[in-house]
Design brief:
- By secondary structure, the chain is mainly alpha-helical.
- The protein has a domain at 6-159 and 284-419.
- Helix content is 74%, strand content 0%.
- It has 20 helices and no strands.
- 40% of the residues are buried.
């Protein structure tokens, strides 16, 4: 009679847990309805691993404490929210901010040795999502003679909101750049560069202003890293000129930047503000932020509760006749303002400190990818309430925990050091 091999069983469960993590990030841009089921299965396999006391290693304790308290503060917000159902739903959406950090500190050795497989899974998911979106647009274009509009913004991004898709693509490009720095084979470098260019084109077509801003920051960031390492100054300046021209073309010819160009022209040539329509996105967003700041002033200390934030904002929209925002029941379109409205000054400070503690951790560890992740998240938080949706909380919760709490090792077969 065979005896049960617990060590072999643990290895199998560890592998299943790791593969499930790859599937979570793979399906993130593809099938968001499937992601919660994968997270549930991931938790079950994590529990099945057992032996937690031996595996628990905390790489960034301050960030862990801060993000747990940040989540608990939203739980407390249920108590004084008038709309309990909305508050419970909001807390459920934010569960990823608790689940991933708590579980990642006790993760198995697969994550430490094979971390780049997770990034490759995420990159692959974004490649397939991009091809599906482009394929759909080409089908409409050739089959039904659809206008070029179907290659842009929401008409292109049929799987997920374009702002979130652009954010995913920016992080995928950052991952590719980091991996490319340590890739040994020339063909890998060419492949990674080609996929990065493809993602850059997708971000341009998605017409996400935030995505284009972040993309410019990433290129500048990596350009200076490249510039410092190369001895060929002519090549460096040539690349700089090409990037500058491409960025200029992106801003000049992308329709999503038209309101920004109008504002600049008004400032330079002292044109009347009446030439800018109140319905333009930039103008509307500023009015939304002004309304959010008023709500914050009236509820500075504890906020209005996470169930009543949007309802309170809608009253302000009605007062100031921001019809579009009131009709769509929009949030603050800024995660820092949204958090301030929901949980008051304590929640706002916790969110800021989460970024600060992680940035300190990235500088101490010289962890380039973590730094870029924080930049991408922070810029997106300034223009969208990213933690109000599953697409935002799963992305932020998972990669925040992975990059902050998993002490990975170099693996020559995958180049795990590329994450630096």
């Amino acid at each position: 009679m065979r005896t049960w091999n617990f060590e072999k069983w643990a290895t199998v469960i560890n592998a299943i847990n790791f593969v499930t993590a790859i599937l979570i990030v793979f399906f993130l841009p593809l099938m968001k309805s499937f992601v919660p089921l994968l997270i549930l299965f991931w938790i079950l396999t994590w529990l099945a691993e057992g032996n937690f006391t031996k595996r628990f290693k905390i790489n960034n304790k301050p960030a862990l404490i801060l993000i747990v308290f940040f989540f608990l503060l939203h739980v407390v917000g249920i108590i004084y929210s008038k709309n309990i159902n909305e508050s419970l739903f909001d807390t459920q959406v934010m569960l990823s901010l608790l689940i991933f950090p708590v579980t990642m500190i006790g993760i198995n050795e697969f994550y430490q040795k094979k971390i780049n497989y997770i990034f490759f899974g995420f990159i692959s998911g974004n490649v397939i999502a991009s091809l599906i979106c482009l394929g759909h647009s080409f089908y409409l274009f050739f089959k039904w003679n659809a206008p070029f509009q179907y290659f842009t913004y929401e008409d292109l991004s049929i799987l997920i909101h374009p702002s979130y898709f652009a954010m995913y693509l920016c992080f995928a490009i950052s991952s590719l750049f980091c991996i490319n720095f340590t890739a040994n084979k020339k063909r890998n470098k060419i492949l990674f560069a080609s996929v990065s260019i493809f993602f850059s084109v997708m971000i341009y077509l998605l017409s996400s202003k935030t995505g284009l801003i972040v993309l410019a920051i990433i290129f500048i960031f990596f350009y200076f890293n490249f510039f410092k390492k190369t001895s060929n100054r002519f090549s460096s300046w040539l690349i700089s000129a090409i990037l500058f021209v491409l960025l200029s073309v992106a801003i000049l010819f992308n329709s999503r930047f038209e309101p920004l160009r109008n504002i600049t022209e008004n400032f330079l040539f002292q044109r009347s503000n009446t030439e800018i329509s109140a319905e333009e996105s930039n103008s509307a967003r500023i009015k939304i932020w002004e309304s959010a700041i008023e709500v914050i002033k009236e509820n500075f200390w504890i906020g209005v509760g996470n169930g009543d934030a949007n309802e309170t904002l809608s009253k302000k929209y009605k007062l100031y006749k921001i019809a579009m925002a009131e009709e769509k029941h929009l949030n603050a379109h800024n995660q820092f303002l949204q958090t301030f409205i929901e949980t008051g000054v304590i929640g706002f400070l916790l969110l800021v400190l989460i970024f600060v503690s992680s940035l300190i951790n990235s500088i101490k560890r010289k962890y380039l990818l973590l730094t870029l992740f924080l930049i991408i998240a922070c810029v997106n938080f300034l223009f969208e309430s990213m933690l109000e949706t599953q697409a935002g909380t799963v992305f932020f919760g998972f990669f925040f925990a992975l990059l902050n709490f998993v002490p990975f090792e170099k693996d020559d077969s995958t180049g795990s050091a590329a994450a630096y």
